[in-house]
Amino acid sequence: MTKQTPTSRPFAVVTGASSGIGLELARQLIERGHDVLVCAEDAEIDTARDRLRAEQGAESPVVESFHADLTTATGVGALVAGVVATGRPVDVLALNAGVANGGPFLETPIEDDVALIDLNITAVVRLAKALVPAMVERGEGRVLITASSAATQPGPWYATYAASKAFDLSFAEAIRHELKSTGVSVTALMPGPTDTEFFERAGMEGTGAGKGPKDDPAKVAAAGLDALFAGKDKVTASMAAKSQAASAAVLPETANAAMQGALTKPRD
């Protein structure tokens, strides 16, 4: 990544942007007048970059892609260095990259569970620690952390995922409070089941949640960005997610676990 020619547009960084909600966040940030740096581990990120560029036509903003394995400190460090190398302040930091592992906890490979924690939790903390201080020093900036409606309940059959998203939600709310007088806002996006590659990648296509209705990722991204630019603390991005959060608020954790487990338990 090299230093970019300065433009009058604000600059956004979006992780996990090769498809799904992340790609839609990048697309809609461009539509809202931002240049973007999109990041993912896989080669699809370059395809996503090219699509975003093509969609904008002759007045295309700056759209760059960056390959990084954010499950490693080396990958996070490379992305941070790439962002710094642009020479541009980050106006929007969308920490969206995440994975899930479906199945009984005692059967999922420990390597997959640890990689999930490294991406969903550790990378979020590392990137926030590295990039938010410059926002605070400048006195402006917005951070969007993709949590999940799963953050509100224990998640049998994808235990590490639900727990990681509970961390993300708590972390977003906590640092939001710490930063409330700095000019930097933090918003948690809480999608419900969304029409992305999530269930396929997690091996959860056969679950009730995997077979059930799903939200449009474009609408989820729009809800997240509307909340972000309104300075809200969090947003549940669909009626299903709102219903889940409401139930979680009044039911005991044993009931929450049973209700969530009914949707995520593998089926023959």
How would you describe the overall organization of this protein?
The protein has 268 residues and is an alpha/beta fold. It has one domain: NAD(P)-binding Rossmann-like Domain (Rossmann fold). Helices cover 50% and strands 13% of the residues. It has ten helices and seven strands. The protein has helices at residues 20-31, 44-56, 73-85, 110-138, 159-178, 198-202, 208-211, 217-230, 239-250, 253-264; strands at 11-15, 35-40, 63-67, 92-95, 141-146, 184-190, 234-236. It has a seven-stranded parallel beta sheet, with helices on both faces. Strand 2 (35-40), helix 2 (44-56) and strand 3 form a beta-alpha-beta unit. Helix 1 packs across helix 8 (217-230), helix 3 packs parallel to helix 4 (110-138) and helix 4 runs parallel beside helix 5 (159-178). The model has no long low-confidence stretch (mean pLDDT 89).
Tags for this entry?
7 strands, 10 helices, alpha/beta, seven-stranded parallel sheet, single chain, 268 residues, Rossmann fold
Secondary-structure map:
Elements: E1 11-15, H1 20-31, E2 35-40, H2 44-56, E3 63-67, H3 73-85, E4 92-95, H4 110-138, E5 141-146, H5 159-178, E6 184-190, H6 198-202, H7 208-211, H8 217-230, E7 234-236, H9 239-250, H10 253-264
Parallel strand pairs: 1-2, 1-4, 2-3, 4-5, 5-6, 6-7
Helix pairs in contact: 1-8, 3-4, 4-5
